[in-house]
Structures are given as C-alpha cells and as structure tokens.
Write a structure and sequence with these properties.
The structure holds 2 protein chains of 2 kinds.
Chain A (H helix, E strand, L loop, with lengths): L1 H27 L7 E7 L5 H11 L2 E7 L2 H10 L6 E2 L3 H9 L33 E14 L23 E4 L2 H11 L9 H12 L5 E5 L2 H7 L5 E5 H10 L3 E4 L5 E9 L7 H12 L1 H11 L6 H6 L2 H4 L8 H4 L2 E2 L5 H19 L1
Parallel strand pairs in A: 1-2, 1-3, 5-6, 5-7, 9-10
Antiparallel strand pairs in A: 4-7, 4-8, 4-9
Helix pairs in contact in A: 5-6, 5-14, 6-14, 7-8
Chain B lengths: L1 H30 L16 H8 L1 H33 L4 H16 L2 H14 L6 H26 L2 H9 L4 H30 L2 H6 L7 H9 L5 H38 L5 H5 L3
The chains are: A alpha/beta, B mainly alpha.
Chain lengths: 357, 282
C-alpha cells in the first residue's frame, strides 16, 4: 500500500512538473487570456514567418491548427466543441456552411484593403457580395507532366489524357467533382452540368480512360510525381507548384477546354470566441506585402492585385498560374448542385473507380 | 539428427519473422539521419532533423502534453480499474460476475473508432468543450478495461484464506484492503498501469475524435504532418518515440524482476501460511 501510494504521488508530481513545463513554454510564447487567436487552416498553408509577424504587430498569440480536408474541418466546426476564430474552407464548403448558418456575417466597415483584391474574384456564386468570406488563395485544376517521360507538346487539353500513349501512366485526384468535371469539359459541357444525358455521356467517356489510369489518389500524388513514379497527374495548381518546386522536370498545363476555378476563403465561424482577432488577421492578410510573401512561400496564386505587383516578374507572367483573361473566361467555379445531383456525380465516379480494379 | 535440423528451421523462422517486424522501423530510423531530405536515397549523415525536432517548441509542447496526459490518465484509470476488479471479484453470483466481466471485455475489443465517435457525440450532447479534459476523460475510459483485465488474475491467485484470517482477527475493511489485498495484487496493478500508459501514449483513433481547442497529442500531430508529405523530422521524432518505448519496456522488466525477487525472498523467510504478515500490528 505504502509503495503504491508513493508511486501514485510520484506520478502525480511528474505530471505536475510536465504541466508546469508546458505552461512555461506557452508563457514564453506570450500567452495570456483573451488575446489568443485560434486559426484553423490547411496543413502547410501559410508562411510561418507571417504568423510570427502577426503576433508581433498585433499582440495576439496564434494557436495554429490544421485540417486535411474540408469535410474534416466541417465536422470539427459543426459539432461545436471548438472555438476557432478563423477558418479557410474551399468555396463549395463555404456555400454549405452559409446554408447551415454556421458562419458569422462580416462587417465590411471593419475590413480594410478589400479594393486590393481582383474584382473578378469577388461576388462569386457561392457567396454573393462576399458577405461571409474573403479570398485567401485561388487556383485551377490541371495536368502535371514530367518532361523526361512525356512529350509535353502533345498534352494541352483534357482530351489528350485519353491518348493511347499514356497507357497506365496517369494519376487522378480522388474527387468525384474533379474527375467527372474534366470528362464533362472534354465533351464541351459545363462542369456544373445537371443534364442527365450529359452526365451519362461523361461517364461513358470516362470508361475509355480506364486503361490510362495508373492510380486514383489524393495527397500522395505530390510525392509520386516528385519521385517520378508516374509521368502525368491531374491535380490542383497549388499542389503542382509545390511539385515543380521540388522537381524541375515537372510542368503544369491548364487544359484548353477550360477548368475548375477554386477558391479558399477566410471565414469566421459562428462559434468564434475572438472575432476581433479574426478581423485583425483578415486585414493583416489583405496587406499587399503579406499576401505577396505568403504567395511566394506557398506557391499558390494570390487574389490580391496589389500583391501581384510585388511578386517576381516570372511568377506573374506564368500563364499557367496567372492565366490570361481569355483563359479565365473558360474557368468555372463549382456550384452547389444539391444532394440529388451530388449523389449522381458520386455514383458515376464510383462506378468508374470500381472498374479500375 | 532429424531433431537438430527442425530446431534450426524454427530458429530461422523466428529470425525471419522478427526481421520482417522490425525492418520498417529500422528503415525509418536509418533515414532519420539522412542529409538528403527525402527517403529516396541516403546521401549523408546528419543530426539536423533531430535538431529541428528540438527547436520546434510546438512539437515539444505537444510531447510534454502527451506525456502528462498518459501519466495522469493511466493513474486515474488504474485506481478506478483496480477497485473495479476487486468489485467484480467479490460479486457472489457467478453469472453476474461473468456478465460484468464480459461487459468489460466488450469495451476492450470494440474498435477505437466507435469508442471515439461515441465519446465525441456524448461530449457534444452535454455541451462539453473539447480540449485536454475531454481527451483525458476519453483516455481514462478506454484504459479502465485493460487495468481490470490485468488486475483480475492476480486477485484470483490471491490466497483467500488470508482475507478470512485477517477478518477473523479483527481487521476492518480498510486494513484488509491495504494490508492484504493491495500488496498481493501489486504486480497486476503495475502491469495495468504500464498497459494503460502505453495505450494512452500511442492512441490515435479515440484522441483524433475528441481533441480540439489547441490541444493535440503526438500521434495526432504526426498524422496531420505526414499527410502533407513525410518530412524527415517525423522520422526523427518517431525514432525518439521508439527509443522511449524501448526504455519503458526495459524499465518495466526491471521493476517486474525486482518485485519477483522481493516476493521470493519474503515467502522463503516467512511461514507458508503467512499468518504473521496478515496480523502483524503496526
């Protein structure tokens, strides 16, 4: 009994010491109550130096947490046990969160620097008038290829993916909207099509893609492409920028039929404890030099026009990441199709996936 | 001759299985020293990934939190679980006892995901903020059945006549518990504590569901980092964790050895009925 009590006390003392140590670490970071800013973002989606700069400038202390999918983020925010002050979801998820009344309406009088943003990226169908969200990054869906394994000249449209030369070499991103969308666009339909016949045609066309597909994967595409285990991949422009940073033989192509235009926007959930800090952060990110620094670090395309002027010339002139206006016109934003058509997209994509095995 | 040969085969098989089990870990540790920055090829030796781990205050904070959580939740679970085991042991009706034990075992074999999801639903329903406390409670919850399972066999091994004798000689319930029952099940309690500790330390699924509010544990953190492409910092961290676990196993071995030795000494000296010990006034 004595021995057991002694051990229990020792364990308690040890946990006490550990607790003090971690509190001490927090203190060193400058934490006090009321000035903590909970920031919930995609993994590796901001330059850490900016977080430090924000802490220095405003006195808030940032608690940075990450998620790896919109759905995971949605679940965490929706179940309510969390107190995130700022979240960065993608556009279709913003649409859904607005509809479910999960977001705080923004007070535009407290936001400075809205006019720095590209007008075309404001007032999008998922959030008319930007009442709930402010653009953070944007991008497209396209094709990455390795110049040593594939002749890049022969690859400038979605249709080229069906080429017999690409047998067993294409990696697709695991997303129903993305894969169905590229098939729809290769046929000249909108990627928001709710025409049953068009959808069936697209699904039939996808059957022909089966021999070309090497794998249907998600985040792993990045590693595979860098390590040259596949020659072609369909992925998002931001991911592509990361890969090209690691492996110079990779190139990104924005297909000529058009593509998806996606946004990741800053929103304040209704459960936020510290909206002041969230506004401070939005304003901080709208400042051109901060947006430019972030875009330079992450490699995604910034929606901040003033920031674009601060970026290196070669970045801005890269048509694949900052496409010309003509190309921009052919880009489409995902619309919320409602559960019925979402289900149809998912089913058709699933049929395609099953065939592969 | 025949016998000798089969013996050799068995050895070979054993070596093969262990190689298979440890090869991935060895591979991971090997590359944690790679200067190349990826797991593609080994280009040179470096400590820089370990340095990066120790410079990352967020990671160190999480490591401290994880340890604190494991130590304290295992303690709470051990206390509750030990009394639970004693309770189950003293249930008179055989059928009730078996039912209770089965309920305990069901919790042990049910998938972590289900436990995690149901705890998340529970916490949300009662409006509980997710954070350290929610993870702490969850870890206690899934550790208790393990402790019960580790303590119960020791109770069954215990000499019941000692308890009867103590009562006979006027010991009250607390004295029986502290002088007879607890000393004889100490090895089981320690084993339960260590099991609960390791379970808490490496749990991912349950923790993943109930973390929030800035609190995170190492396994959850490693998972979210690995999703973004494996950096060798994770290898370094995993190596440290592996060595820590190795240390735990060795430490447990020595504690167990010490207890066995003590026990043998005691039983050798004292009379076989242990009467003296049971009633020795102090």
């Amino acid at each position: 009994m004595k021995k057991l009590t002694l051990m229990a006390v020792a364990v308690l003392a040890l946990s006490g010491v550990l607790h003090l140590a971690s509190v001490q670490l927090d203190r060193a970071g400058g934490a006090t109550d009321g000035n903590t800013f909970y920031f919930y973002n995609w993994g590796d989606y901001i330059d850490p130096e900016l977080l430090e700069k924000f802490e220095e400038e405003t006195g808030y202390r940032v608690v940075y947490e990450t998620f790896d999918s919109n759905e995971a983020m949605y679940t965490k925010v929706q179940q309510g046990g969390t107190a995130y002050d700022l979240v960065i979801p993608s556009e279709y998820m913003i649409d859904r969160m607005i509809q479910e009344d999960m977001l705080m309406e923004l007070d535009h009088s407290r936001i400075e620097g809205m006019d720095n943003l590209v007008k075309d990226f404001l007032d999008q169908p998922f959030d008319p008038g930007n009442r709930y969200s402010i653009p953070y990054f944007w991008g497209t869906l396209g094709i990455v290829y390795n110049e040593t394994l594939i002749d890049g000249e022969s690859l400038d449209s979605w249709d080229d993916l069906w080429s017999p030369a690409l047998k067993e070499s294409v990696m697709l991103i695991d997303g129903a909207r993305e894969v169905m969308g590229l098939s729809l666009q290769s046929l000249g339909y909108s990627l928001n099509s709710t025409n049953d016949q068009a959808l069936q045609e697209a699904a039939d066309k996808l059957d022909g893609l089966v021999p070309s597909v090497k794998a249907i994967v998600a985040d792993e595409i990045k590693t595979y492409m860098i390590q040259e285990e596949a020659s072609v991949a369909v992925t998002f422009s931001g991911e592509a920028a990361d890969m090209m940073w690691e492996n110079e033989k990779l190139h990104y192509v924005l297909p000529e039929e058009g593509s998806n235009l996606w946004f990741d926007n800053m929103v304040i959930p209704k459960t936020a404890q510290n909206p002041d800090a969230a506004y401070a952060f939005i304003n901080f990110m709208l400042e051109p030099e901060n947006a430019a620094q972030n875009a330079d670090y992450i490699g995604y395309s910034t929606p901040n026009e003033a920031a674009m002027e601060l970026l290196p010339e070669e970045t801005i002139s890269d048509e694949q990441f900052y496409p010309s206006e003509e190309t921009m016109d052919r880009l489409e934003v995902y619309e919320n199709l409602g559960p019925e058509y979402l289900g149809i997209y998912n089913d058709l994509f699933l049929e395609f996936k099953i065939q592969r095995n | 001759m025949m016998e000798k040969r089969s013996f050799k085969w068995a050895n070979l098989y054993l070596v093969f299985v262990f190689l298979l089990l440890y090869a991935p870990i060895a591979y991971l540790i090997y590359y944690s020293f790679n200067a190349g920055g990826t797991m593609n090829s080994f280009t040179g030796f470096t400590w820089e990934h370990y340095q990066a781990v120790f410079e990352d205050t967020r990671l160190i904070r999480i490591a401290l939190d994880t340890l604190k959580l494991a130590l304290s939740s295992a303690l709470a679970a051990t206390i509750i679980g030990t009394f639970g085991a004693i309770g189950i042991y003293y249930v008179k009706k055989r059928r009730t006892r078996n039912t209770l034990l089965s309920f305990n075992n069901i919790l042990l074999v049910s998938p972590d995901v289900i436990i995690g999801a149901s705890l998340l639903i529970l916490f949300t329903m009662v409006g509980f903020q997710l954070g350290f406390t929610s993870v702490f409670l969850a870890h206690i919850a899934f550790s208790i059945p393990i402790v019960v399972l580790m303590v119960l066999p020791r109770l069954q091994e215990m000499n019941d006549s000692m308890v009867t004798a103590a009562r006979d000689l006027g010991a009250n319930s607390f004295q029986v518990l502290s002088r007879i029952i607890l000393p004889s099940i100490t090895p089981g309690i320690l084993a339960g504590y260590f099991m609960a500790f390791t379970y808490s330390l490496d749990d991912f699924a349950v923790t993943f569901f109930v973390t929030g509010g800035g609190f995170s544990t190492l396994s959850v953190e490693i998972y979210s980092r690995a999703r973004q492409g494996v950096s060798l910092e994770i290898n370094a961290l995993s190596t440290i964790l592996f060595l820590f676990a190795l240390g735990l196993v060795v430490g447990y071995y020595f504690i167990q050895q010490g207890l066995e030795k003590n026990k043998r000494k005691r039983t050798a000296v004292k009379d076989p009925t242990n009467h003296e010990k049971a009633v020795s006034p102090r």
